[in-house]
UniProtKB/TrEMBL annotation:
Record-level Gene Ontology MF annotations: dioxygenase activity; nitronate monooxygenase activity
Keywords assigned: Dioxygenase, Flavoprotein, FMN, Oxidoreductase
Name this protein carries in UniProt: NAD(P)H-dependent flavin oxidoreductase YrpB, nitropropane dioxygenase family
Extent of the signal sequence: none
PANTHER family, A to Z: 2-NITROPROPANE DIOXYGENASE, MONOOXYGENASE RV1533-RELATED
């Protein structure tokens, strides 16, 4: 299975895998796809640089990319404490009451600061670090990055991708200089729009003259083949790597993976409680609490993330699968076992080839 995207990115197969784990990203690249490391968890640029050094040494010379979160609207940014003052006390009280009611204990030590990777300035520092490494692609999870960022990437020979939930967004991205559009359907995990993948992909393919990756609800070779049939040049997969062996090895056994392995495709919810923008999450007691009548409205990005950052840390340490807070798409219903990345990739390729052969014989 090969498309023009393979030559564009220097990969064997048109499968791009987004993941917050460098171990998973490196394994995807080694298996012939393009591993894309999510950078939002890095508050410290030096820490990201160290991880990218590791990526350079563990991808067998094969290409990889990074994903930043650069909001289109630049907020007024000062110290984290200044932003913290913008969070209403009632929201903080609600979070604390909810955690107590759900049996989530306080942390033994100090809580972490909010994930500052949601801030525009920190995302720019991620770009600075990435351009010091042999990355092949910089993707922006919130659409088109500023034109000057795109131009800097191009000056370094790095391609730029942007996620789009509407055809008009895709046209705007390309007009700004974006090289690859990720058409992310409603089914996808994390930040996602309101149009389903089956409808969205051909609309975006017809709207732009750059390679298009299909995203949202993809976890089998049949779905990869369907994406190609819709006109996509490849697929962008995120959720499906969360139950790989490499993800388990990097984080250890966790309640999050236990919850994912036991979930069905109907066990997700699209909500603004994670970052302030609509994102699809695993449906748990935590998401249910925010849907109750006494729950406050989520704050805009980046304030919502700063509000719930310590809560997410406490939830993670509580290790209760009924409460976890995790972005994941509707494909979670097919994520029923832990397998190595190489095995997942081999299965995707075999199923895709079998599907294409079956269709050819119709």
């Amino acid at each position: 299975m090969r498309t023009s995207l393979c030559d564009t990115l220097g990969i064997e197969y048109p499968i791009v895998g987004f993941t917050p784990s460098e171990h998973v990203a490196a394994a995807i690249s080694r298996a012939g796809g393009l591993g894309v490391l999510g950078c939002v968890r890095f508050n410290d640029a030096a820490e990201l640089a160290k991880v990218l050094d590791w990526m350079d040494e563990n991808t067998d010379g094969k290409p990889y990319g990074v994903d930043v979160v650069m909001p289109a609207k630049i907020p007024t940014e000062g110290a984290a404490l200044d932003l913290d003052k913008m969070i209403p006390p009632g929201h903080k009280d609600f979070v604390e009451r909810t955690l107590q009611r759900l049996g989530v204990p306080p942390l033994a030590g100090e809580g972490r600061a909010g994930v500052l990777g949601w801030l525009h300035s920190v995302a720019r520092s991620h770009v600075d670090v990435a351009l010091e490494h042999p990355v092949k692609l910089i993707a922006n999870a919130l659409g088109s990055p500023p034109v000057d960022v795109i131009e800097r990437a191009h000056d370094h020979g790095v391609l730029v991708a942007a996620l789009a939930g509407k055809a008009e967004h895709a046209r705007s991205h390309v007009a700004n200089g974006v090289d690859i559009v990720v058409a992310q359907g409603y089914e996808a995990g994390g930040h996602t729009g309101e149009i389903a993948t089956m409808v969205l992909v051909p609309e975006i393919v017809d709207a732009v003259d750059v390679p298009v990756l299909a995203a949202g609800g993809i976890g089998t070779g049949r779905q990869v083949a369907a994406a190609l049939a819709l006109g996509a040049d490849g697929v962008w997969m995120g959720s499906y790597w969360l139950t790989t062996a490499e993800y388990t090895e990097s984080l250890g056994e966790s309640a999050m993976q236990e919850a994912l392995l036991g979930a069905s495709s109907s066990d997700t919810v699209r909500t603004r409680i994670y970052t302030g923008k609509p994102a699809r999450l695993l449906k748990t007691k935590w998401t249910d609490a925010w849907a109750e009548e006494d729950a406050p409205d989520p704050l805009p990005m980046p304030l919502q993330n700063l509000l719930v950052a310590e809560a997410h840390n406490r939830i993670q340490h509580a290790n209760d699968p009924a409460v976890v807070s995790m972005p994941v798409g509707q494909i979670v219903g097919r994520m029923s076992q832990v397998r190595p990345v190489a095995e997942v990739m081999e299965t995707l390729l075999r199923e895709t080839e079998e599907t294409l052969a079956r269709l050819k014989n119709l």
